[in-house]
What does this fold into?
Amino acid sequence: ILSDPEAAKYVWGVGFHWYETWDGSPPMHANVAATQQGWPGIQVLLTEATVERFDPARLQSWPNAERYGRQIIGDFNAGAVGWTDWNILLDETGGPNHVKNFCFAPVHADTRDGSLHYMNSYYYIGHFSKYIKPGAKRIACSSSRAQLQATAFKNPDGQLVVVVMNQGDTEVSFRLYLDTQAAETLSLPHSIMTFIL
It folds into this structure.
């Protein structure tokens, strides 16, 4: 469709999902980048993501949250213009779901007592959704530490937002550079942090 000029003029963007990891494969952020680079006028938007195979014993699983962080950073750095979860709220069974494909969500409600339970993934998503404002533009950002993933945006008001995630088992000291100025900081094991400049 995008290769046909007549059809492409009706296309704003391309939506994609994150589920390539079901079979144990690594995320395919290069495909997101290739689509964005091949058709630079087309927006690339993640339209559905969730941690599948619901198990109540894994409700507060840290790897679930890190999967969100890893995917969001990777997709943004590959050129995605936005990111939407499949379902922000599910019940205590990981549903409802008409095909019985029960999943995790950033928030789970217990319909038996009316309580809400915020998962680690809810807070990981917040590092992006609370600080990167509508209309923000992604700016160049790179990490010189293999253990750290990072992405950065410039908000419409000029504020810079840098998100740094450490999936490793050790703390990592690093300098956050902006032009010729730097700030010493420390990333704790299995953590995510947001810097606002």
